[in-house]
Design brief:
Blueprint (H helix, E strand, L loop, with lengths): L2 E5 L6 E5 L3 H14 L11 H16 L14 H5 L7 H23 L5 H24 L10 H7 L8 H21 L4 H11 L1 H8 L3 H14 L3
Antiparallel strand pairs: 1-2
Helix pairs in contact: 2-4, 4-5, 7-8, 8-10, 9-10
Length: about 230
């Protein structure tokens, strides 16, 4: 039976099904092959995938009653009227489609004989932006399986804030240093184990840092570990 295994790191961390028998491997390969979008005669590399992604982005826009207008720019007014933020899937999908439309427009010029550096550079720029937006949509806007929160929100929460009180920064650093020492003493980075060890064996230190004891302290430590990516 296939097993689940973690792959990737950071924003790309995910669970992947790993086949363990020849028959499972063959079936997994067949499913993967069948999932690939079909290429058409005359397609360039990635054309089929780009068409497939374009349909996915159009479906995302359709969830709020919007459609791809085929233009190379985005009218943000309809998005704002629906209360959508710049990090919403619909907003990012609209930007991706604009770059895709730009790529296809300059592709038409290339096919018509315009092989100038300017035309080729514009195609490359559009393709680069498509990749950047796709990475943001599929990974950054995705949900982290461990916390249930959006990955981008977790990443922003972990950055350093300017202007925070010095005492607050110092307290955070003390907590981090303490928990790193606890993790080293038990030889594991599992959050549940670190929280349990700290709450059970370092009660006085935990009481000073988190102003709590017992199960309440353990819960506070777990939250701190999650929020600070320890």
């Amino acid at each position: 039976m296939a097993r689940l295994e973690k792959k990737g790191a950071g924003l790309t961390e995910r669970l992947v099904s790993i086949p363990e028998t020849p028959s499972e491997l063959i079936e997994a390969f067949r499913r993967w092959s069948d999932s690939l979008p079909a290429a058409l005669p005359g397609d360039w590399s990635c054309d089929a995938r780009n068409r497939h992604n374009a349909e996915r982005c159009r479906a995302i826009l359709a969830t709020v009653g919007l459609a791809d207008d085929g233009k190379c720019g985005v009218d943000f007014t309809p998005l704002r009227e629906r209360g959508l933020a710049e990090n919403s899937a619909q907003w990012i999908a609209a930007l991706w489609l604009a770059e895709y439309n730009t790529l296809m427009r300059f592709r038409e010029r290339f096919d018509a004989g315009d092989a100038t550096p300017k035309n080729i550079a514009r195609m490359l720029m559009a393709a680069e932006d498509m990749g950047r937006l796709q990475e943001r949509l599929w990974w950054r806007a995705g949900v982290d399986p461990e916390s249930g929160e959006r990955r981008e929100a977790l990443a922003i929460r972990g950055r350093k804030f300017r202007g925070a009180p010095q005492g607050e920064r110092a307290a955070t650093l003390q907590k981090r240093a303490f928990l790193i020492q606890v993790a080293a003493s038990i030889g594991t980075n599992k959050r549940e184990a670190i929280a349990a060890e700290a709450a059970a064996k370092y009660r006085a230190r935990v009481r000073v840092l988190w102003r709590a004891e017992g199960q309440k302290a353990r819960s506070k430590i777990l939250n701190f570990l999650r929020n600070n990516s320890i």
